[in-house]
Structure formats: C-alpha cells, structure tokens
Amino acid sequence: MKLVTKQDFTNTYSLSAFADKSINKYSNWFPVYASPNLSSIIGCLITDGHLQTRKIEKHTKYDYLGFFSDNKQELEMFNTKINSIFGVKGKITKWGIRYNGKSTGIIISNAALLRVLILCGCPSGEKVSKKFEVPSWILKGNKEIQSAFLRSSFSCDGTVFVEKESKRCRIRMIMYKQKKLSNDLRNYLNSLRKMLKEAFNIDTNNLSYGGKYTRNKDNEQMIGMYFEINPKSISLFAKEIGFDINYKNSKLQNAILG
User: Fold this and answer.
1) Model pTM?
2) Which of 125, 155, 181 is the C-terminal boundary of a domain?
3) What is the mean pLDDT of residues 71-86?
4) pLDDT tens-digit readout, 134-147
5) What average pLDDT score do residues 93-111 get?
6) Statement to judge: residues 141 and 253 lie in one domain
7) 185 and 223 belong to one structural domain
8) Widest Cα–Cα separation across the chain
9) Structural domain count, the chain
10) Distance CA 97, CA 149 (A)
C-alpha cells in the first residue's frame, strides 16, 4: 500500500522553494509504502516516542524525533528500522530526568522525516494531551504489519510477570492520558484488543483502571487504563506477537514452560 507520495510530502510546505529543496534531497524516500518495519516504528513512537513540532505564527516548525528507552537493544533496533527505510540514523543521547525517571533516547533532527511520519499517521507533540488513533493502514494491514505494530507497542508499554502464589503468567498493556481524554484512551486500547482478536484470535480481558497521578508542571490529572492477555491466549500471544526485547521474551517463554 502506497502511503506517502512526493506530492503529499511537498503539500506539507507553504513555500515551494523549501519543498523543492527537500524533495531533491530525499527523493529516494518516495513513494513510502506500508511495511512491518514502518508499522513497528509507528508503534514505538506512539508509546515511548515523541515528534517535537512547534507552531510559529502560521507555520509549523519540525524539530526532532525522539525514541526513549533505557534498553540499548531496543534503541539500536529502532535505529536500524529507521535506517532501513529512510537511510538516516539517530544518536543515542542521555535525556536527563523525565517524570518516570532517567532516560536515554535515540534523537534524530530531521524535519523531512517528521513530516513523512506524521503523514503516515504518527501523532506529534504531547500525546497524553491529544486525541489520536491507530493509523488506518495498520488496522487494515496484513498480519505482518499488525503483528509488528502490536509487538513494538507491547515491548514499550507492555509488561510480563508471573504471580508468586498462582504462578500464572500475566501480560499487561497500560497507557496514560489526561483524565479529560479518558474516552479517547479507552477507544485506543480497545482498538488494540480488537486487532488482537480479529487478526490473531488472541483473547483479552476487559479494560481496567490503572491508577492516576497529577503532573507537576501544570497540575493536570493523568489517568491510566490497562488490559491483559487472557491466560488461555498466552501461548498464542507468544507465537503471533511476542516482544522485541530479549529479557521480556525470556520471561514469557520461561513462564510458558513453567
């Protein structure tokens, strides 16, 4: 499926001179096609990534792309996928203190890349404060595209653990958003559940409340929601989806083997 053409890209510019200069430099990117690697990139950016854009008068300034993780394997894998499609690489950078602790990130300062990823359906700016959906080309994509998106999403925002008493393996996907956008959060997580069921026959439990916290910078209340893979579908999840991160896959396989 063709996602972004040269014309789509040049239409994001208000001045043709800048559009022509950029298209000459990156003409080999186009057209951009749907692929598992691109789907995985979008999944990473929706969960643990950030596209920094700013409104300046009537224009939008595209600053940088960031993908954050303290897992080196995850950062290198993201970098490899970006490079395989667009021929650019980011730099692993210490990003200082974030609300959930210290973090390291892949940073790519490339305005053209941000324009393309936004055209592919990736939300920009502060995701906890805005509405967004799973891009339609992923929802309508083949199993490889959907699996790649779900795998990166669970690798970033999913957890796998074994209960001490019952020895039951649990896989949980949790996300947070502003309380006033709780319906949007619910819809997004339900779209993941629907994809798991319809494409892979993986059952999930109903959404549950995942706690709340107040953000220091503006006292905005954040709310969390989560769902878990049904215990009967754990083995199927491991076969069809799994994780990109070795230690999570090891925990999952060890739990299945008992």
Assistant:
1) 0.95
2) 125
3) 96
4) 999 999 999 999 99
5) 79
6) yes
7) yes
8) 66
9) 2
10) 28
